[in-house]
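Researcher: First entry.
Model:
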Amino acid sequence: MRPEKGKVKKMKVKLNNSTIKMVLLQRDVSQNALAKSIGISSAYFSQIARGVRYPSAEVQQRILGALAPMTFDELFVIEGSDVHQDDPGGHPEKEG
């Protein structure tokens, strides 16, 4: 289904929390150790893991590099919402 005219699909990339927990457990690596290895704070990584914040493309690449050979599709989930193209804030379309 295509977005209505004047709307674009805004996508956010979210860490797949259940997968990341499984991978870290299998590799005997803590979230803190992973965060340190990719150059971000453990607090920021915790927010990403809980879905409170979305990782930038650069952080996504760092996570992929640290957890190779895991793939993007295994580690991340893409969320999308319709937003008005003329809305500079990119606010989601309100329903009803």
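Researcher: Second entry.
Model:
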Amino acid sequence: MEKLSNNSQDLVKRDSRGRLLPGSVINPLGKQAGTRDKAKVIRAAFFETFNRIGGIDELVRWVNENKINKKEFYKMMLSLLPKEMDVKGEINRPYTVMPMIMKDEKPLEINVGD
């Protein structure tokens, strides 16, 4: 069952379960199909420029030129790294040795698992 949403200006077509149908337009004022994303255009321009000015070899030469360039390079490199990482896994040690708690002149092992 195909129906138009309550707002007559919307072009959102949904089925009886509320799912979008092919050809539905959620944001009619949005970006046109085939329009290039500005961020991608700028990124491509930076890569092209990087290659034209000498690529990796020129970057290495510039970094080694002086301490200020080296510092700037590290700042740029750090800005490109992810700010957060989601690390999942298990701890393989079921206990922790705490040397400040002694028993019989040996570190007391405390089980912090289960």
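Model: Note on the second entry: Residues 38-52 form the longest helix (15 residues).
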